[in-house]
Amino acid sequence: MKEVHSQLVDVVLLTQENGSTMLCRAGEEAVKRAWGTWPIVKAEFTGEKQLLQWIEDDPQYDPVPSTHM
Fold it and tell me: pLDDT per residue over 4-44, tens digit each?
């Protein structure tokens, strides 16, 4: 059985050099990646929280292939 992981993260508003903005809802590491990828000049917490949930790959889990098409 696979375990579902959850993490509550802050939503961050990122502002680029040209003034355009985007929301980052994937945690601190995602903000750091965006900062290295886009010309970000400012990051502000919006006060919102986002619940992230994920399932890690389990090599022992081998689902039965579906016969539905």
Answer: 899 999 999 999 999 999 999 988 889 999 988 999 999 99
The answer to whether 64 and 30 are in contact (CB under 8 A) is no
Residue 32: both structure tokens together: 């750091």
* pTM greater than the 0.85 cutoff: no
Token duo for residue 66: 């579906």
- Cα separation, 62 vs 22, in Å, equals 38
Residues 6+ apart with CB under 8 A from 60: none
Alpha carbon of residue 15 to chain centroid: 18
